[in-house]
């Protein structure tokens, strides 16, 4: 799933390639991807793109005097830029293509989604805050005003495990499964540690890991072409998706806890005092 660093890189890439250009055609291929109907997709056509912004994991394309095209790539969605789009309209079918946006230059991009769980979402709205997912977002962890005091206040009273709290978009915007694993590894903290049990020292360490991990990931992704961002993300991960490999910090074997639709990875030596976590939903340390 694209998370804050990849969406930030896509924002920068699209700002360079879209702003100042006119959208001449928006072609839906998978109708299920469109979550709004008023304004229609056609309201974007003939309008110049004036800005590209990021809200958490959402991408927002603003047009001059017109609506916004807001996209959430979900778990298996992606954006493919093409300097020259194919001639003729795309054919609806069972392939991954969901939406095509064409510019007056002949360039444009495709939104695609792999797999059978279709969660890619496209909204055409007068204001991004009309998208429920955008309206409920918590603060952006890379914003200038997101300091340790604000982070501490967000966690005050949290009764959840810290892994779940970090992934809650209404608490902190943009962090998903992969980067929460990376942040907790950098902080040397168990994913099952209760947020309410954090000491001031724990909170400081976690805040620094949050900011440093995301900042470094954004810097790695900056300037990378859209088509190479997935590979760039994977190459920079230390524990997530690396079950069975040695931890790059201590050499211990990276372990996994599996759930019905996801999994987390961690290093026992770095994060749980050498004890493996129980691989079941009760999520407690093995005795």
Helix content: 25-40%
| Strand proportion | 15-25%
The helix/strand class is alpha+beta
- Specify Rg, calculated over alpha carbons: 20 Å
Total of helices: 8
Distance between the termini: 33 Å
Uncertain ranges: 281-287
Average pLDDT for all residues: 92
Encode the helix/strand succession as letters: HEEEEEEEEHHHHHHEEH
- Strand order across the biggest sheet? 5-7-6-1-2-3-4-8
The tally of strands reads 10
Overall spatial form: elongated
The major β-sheet equals:
8 strands, antiparallel
Structure description:
The protein is α+β, with helices and mostly antiparallel strands. The protein is built from 8 helices and 10 strands. α5 packs across α6. 27% of the residues lie in helices and 21% in strands. It has helices spanning 4-18, 132-135, 148-155, 162-167, 177-186, 200-221, 229-236, 268-271; strands at 22-28, 47-55, 58-63, 68-72, 77-82, 97-103, 108-113, 121-125, 255-258, 263-266. Strands 5-7-6-1-2-3-4-8 form an 8-stranded antiparallel sheet. Strands 9-10 form a two-stranded antiparallel sheet. It is elongated, with a radius of gyration of 20 Å.
């Amino acid at each position: 799933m694209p998370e804050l660093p990849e969406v930030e890189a896509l924002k920068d890439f699209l700002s360079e390639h879209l702003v100042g250009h006119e959208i001449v055609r928006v072609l839906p291929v998978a109708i299920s991807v469109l979550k709004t109907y008023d304004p229609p997709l056609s309201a974007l056509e003939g309008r110049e793109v004036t800005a590209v912004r990021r809200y958490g994991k959402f991408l927002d394309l603003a047009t001059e005097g017109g609506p916004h095209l807001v996209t959430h790539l979900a778990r298996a969605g992606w954006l493919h830029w093409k300097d020259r789009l194919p001639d003729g309209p795309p054919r609806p079918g069972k392939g991954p293509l969901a939406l095509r946006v064409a510019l007056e230059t002949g360039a444009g991009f495709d939104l695609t989604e792999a797999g059978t769980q279709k969660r890619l979402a496209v909204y055409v709205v007068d204001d991004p805050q009309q998208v429920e997912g955008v309206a409920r977002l918590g603060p952006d962890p890379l914003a200038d005003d997101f300091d340790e005091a604000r982070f501490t206040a967000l966690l005050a009273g949290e009764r959840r495990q810290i892994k779940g709290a970090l992934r809650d978009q209404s608490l902190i915007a943009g962090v998903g499964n992969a980067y929460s694993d990376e942040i907790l590894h950098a902080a040397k903290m168990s994913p099952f540690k209760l947020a309410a049990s954090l000491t001031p020292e724990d909170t400081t360490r976690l805040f620094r890991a949050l900011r440093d991990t995301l900042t470094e990931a954004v810097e790695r992704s900056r300037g990378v072409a859209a088509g190479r961002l997935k590979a760039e993300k994977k190459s920079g991960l230390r524990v997530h998706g690396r079950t069975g490999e040695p931890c790059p910090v201590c050499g211990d074997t990276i372990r996994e806890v599996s759930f019905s639709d996801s999994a987390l990875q961690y290093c026992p030596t770095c994060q749980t005092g050498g004890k493996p976590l129980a691989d079941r939903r009760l999520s407690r340390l093995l005795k």
